[in-house]
Amino acid sequence: MRNSLVRGGSSINWALNLKSTAYTDENRSISKNELKNMLQGLKSQYNWLKDEPIS
């Protein structure tokens, strides 16, 4: 997982970048549920992310 999350950054941009990289590098797609689970894990590490909704 990349450490490119910047305070005030968008979880949408993070997810799009992750999906794009996975497809380009590994020729696989990341599902919406996988992204939700990854983001939930990040929220436990970065308190400021708790304010961003998961939809």
What does this structure look like?
This protein has 55 residues and is mostly helical. The protein has one domain. Helices cover 55% and strands 0% of the residues. It has helices spanning 11-26, 32-45. The longest helix has 16 residues, at 11-26. The mean pLDDT is 79.
Write the layout of secondary structure elements.
Blueprint: H1 11-26, H2 32-45
Helical segment tally? Answer: 2
Radius of gyration: 11 Å
- Helix % is 40-55%
- Secondary-structure element series: HH
Q: How many distinct folded domains?
A: 1
Structural class, by secondary structure, is mainly alpha
Distance linking N and C termini:
20 Å
Which spans have pLDDT < 50 for at least 5 consecutive residues?
A: none
Beta percentage is under 5%
Bulk shape: elongated
Features:
single chain, 55 residues, mainly alpha, 2 helices, elongated
Q: Outline of this structure?
A:
This protein is mainly α and 55 residues long. It has helices spanning 11-26, 32-45.
